[in-house]
Structures are given as structure tokens and as C-alpha cells.
Amino acid sequence: MSFEIAGRPVGPGHPAYIIAEACDNHMGDLDAAIEMARQSKLAGADAVKYQHHLPDEEMLPDTPMSDNFEEPLYEFLKKHALTLEQHRKIKAYCDDIGITYLCTPFSWAAAKELEPLNVPAFKIGSGEMTDVPSLVRIASLGKPMIISTGMATFDEIQRTYEALATRGTDLALMNCVSEYPPVYEDVNLRVINQMIERFPKAVIGHSDHTPDLFTCYAAVTLGACLIEKHVILDKRTPGPDQSVSIDFRDLATLVDGIRKVEASLGAEKKVHGREQQIRTWAFRSIVSTRAIKAGEVIGEDMVWSKRPGTGIPSHRMDEVVGRRAVRDIADNVLLSWDDLESA
Fold first, then answer.
1. SS3 for 303?
2. How is the chain split into domains, by residue range?
3. How far apart are alpha carbons 232 and 137 in whole angstroms?
4. 308: Cβ contacts below 8 Å, ≥ 6 apart
5. Model's pTM, two decimal places?
6. What CATH topology corresponds to 273-339?
7. What are residue 101's DSSP bridge partners?
8. Among the ranges given (160-174, 205-219, 226-240), the one the predictor scored with the smallest mean pLDDT
9. CATH for 12-263?
């Protein structure tokens, strides 16, 4: 199972698709949002993702908040959410510099507003994962959908998966834990393996809320085909996602590390060309431990193993001990088969 986002293949057999999640860390500042796109491009991310909030379409004003917010989310979004015109300018800038612009619509109304921007795929947050009616409508727009699965049970994920996969939607499901940040014992990365098995019509990825990079690297080794990581220009910037965001120096390290991990994931055990020259000196051969006269029978106390590995291999010691020397052998030299009588 694979699909394309703006011409970039996403799925098994392709490099992990790396999404820099700008979330609301720009605090509504267009210049900051654009700078996040520039820094994401410089770091090597495939895409930078924003969020389109229409607060009155997605929540009631008195919706309870979690402890990663210092003010009600409704009020925060009223102050800091990007406008559609700002999204249009960010999208144009991303197109100019050659990084894919992605966006999360937090309602069907937000998705409809984004549609004229030609967003190549929609990201759906964990909070909307169970909102099947909205997801089906968004899927009708014909774009790939990347859906996080934090806070959800396998039964809930299955329901959403079936609703979209049966409609032929290009679908990615992201392993995710909606803690800000999570304790590592809750991350459960091997759920990725289970998701790959349970949801064969979806590409499986990992949306990470830890404050560092380690679990992202591990997710790639387990088969995650997409990685999403929150980013921030300055870790001192206040906001609900501050504690789970990395800066752009860390993002560059993450991209570089993932590409190196991917390059190292082969499964063939062989002697590589660059190992051959090391074998010649690093392996051990049979060496005399004292001078040996012609005609003497080689005893165990007369030979041992030393580098280099260009003589008789040390694992053949039993074939040497007990043979007679056919000529004088100096102390501390490599033995050869020509020094010994035939078996």
C-alpha cells in the first residue's frame, strides 16, 4: 500500500515522509509561520504542516481544557489561529521554496475553506479521528488523509479505517499518544507492528509528542513510513505545544538521523567490499611460539594465533598440531602449509 503526496511516494519501500508540524507555535504571526516553512525546508523535511481553526465550527466556548493549556482553547484559537488569507500566503511561499504545504482542518467547514488552496493531503488530528461523519465528508474531496490515532482504541481505529478504506481513500494512520509530553512507558512503539498487520490498506506512520528524537528513530526501524514532529522557532515561546516541540536544529538532526537509519536497515549478512582489507589484518593465523626444527612434530605448545589473517586460519589449529615440520621454522612467524608434511 502506498500513495503520493504532491508527487512524492509515501509508503513501504520509500524514504520516510517527514512532516514538520508547525501547529500553533507561530502564535498567529504570519512572519513566524513563513519562517517555520523556510527552516523546515532547510532542515530537509518533506512537508511543513499548519492548522486551520474555525473555533465556532469545532467546539463550544466552554469546552474543558487539558493541562497543557494556560487558557481555554477556544480563547487561545480566537487570538492565535491563522486566517484563511494567511494560509494562502504561506501556501504560496511553500510552493516558491519547494516544500509541501500541509494543513489540518479541524472541521468540515475548515476543509471546505482549504480546498481552493489545492492542499495535496489533509492531516486529521487525534481528536477528530472518531468523527466519522466529518471524515467521510473530507474524504469526498479526494485527497489523501493522514490520521493520528492518539487516545483511541483499536476498535475505534478499525471503525474509521473501514469507513475510509472501503471508499478507496488514500489513507495513512499514525501511531500516536496524546500526552504532552508522554511518559516513555506509554509510547508503545510496537503498536506500529500491530497497525501494519491490522490495517493493510493504510500506510502506517508515527506522530511523536516526546521532547526529543529517539522514539522517531525507533519508529522508522519498526516500519513507520511517515514521521510527524512538532517544531518551534524558539523553545521559550509559550503555547500549548511548547513542551512537545523541537527546534529546527533538532529537526535537521532528526531528518539526517532518519536517513542514516534507513540506509542501515538492510537484511543481508555478507562480507562487504570495504571489510575485505580489514579481514587481511584483523583475523588471526597460526604462528610459531618458538623455533621449530625440521622433522619435529608440531605440539600445542609450539604454535598459537596472532594477526594478520594471511596465513593458515587459526580455526584450523587442529589440522596443524600433530604434523611434522618439513623445514626449519623460525620463532614468531606465520606458518604455511608448505612448512608441514601432507596429511
1. strand
2. 12-263, 273-339
3. 31
4. 280, 281, 282, 283, 285, 334
5. 0.89
6. Type Iii Antifreeze Protein Isoform Hplc 12 (3.90.1210)
7. 48
8. 226-240
9. 3.20.20.70
